[in-house]
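For the sake of transparency, this paper describes our internal protein records without simplification. An entry from our holdings is shown next, in its original layout:
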Amino acid sequence: MKQPLLTLIALFLTTFATAQNGMPQNAGGRGAGLANASLTFTDINSIFVNQAGLGFLENLSFTAYGENRFLGTSGINSFLVGAALPTEKMGTFGLSLHYFGYGTYNEQKIGLAYARKLSSRFSIGAQFDYLGTRIAEYGSANTFTFELGILAKVTKHFDLAAHVFSPIRVELPNGDKLPSIFKLAGTYSPSEMVRITAQVEKDLEQDFVARFGIEYHPMHALYIRAGVSTSPLLASFGLGLNLKGLKIDVATSYHLALGFTPSLGVSYVVGEKTPEKTIAH
């Protein structure tokens, strides 16, 4: 009975969640605390949601993230790892890996990213994706697609970003079409301590999704985050610590029907000696 139930849960998540069938996943622990209102990030977490943000990196960076869907009741986990190397003249190169599922049903995503800052305030990014799915007793299948993104620091207080996942409709081995997802986000920072983001996204065959997140930075090492999203309705909360280049982010989200999803993210920025005085965009 357990395996059919897990399969049904996985199929439900594939239809309604934002991490399956290659769809963009949480932007690490930082994004999870903001209900993934994360399109304007310019740290290593941007490798998972909008590669244009990598263009603003100055140091070699690594990140790892894990979440336990619905506090263990589903048996489904999601794991992400990423690395990005900025260069002085050639832009930033990145690699990300994603695993979602459990033993008899799982999905994998491998992304090769590139970003370039075209000016002090504007960057572009792209990523080539390999997507794989394995279902016990049915075998495995794979496909390929790509992502594109832009990010602009319009003013000192306002950032704007856009991203598209799989803009060309790719046919999956079972005959379905891979979702094409378009996103737009704006972030307003009224002070060095507060960052407010509103984001909308649209799958061509699904309803609009809206995400809202707020990040509060009361002291050099501490971040407090909260967010909410629609379709499905989720609320989230998170905390972050910045310890001389080592960043630790914990978060949890709550689904009205399925419960809590706790998560943990760890990032490391090589050569960052002291905590930043302002919020890392």
In short: The radius of gyration is 18 Å. The first strand starts at residue 61 and ends at 68. Residues 41 and 281 are 5 Å apart (CA to CA).
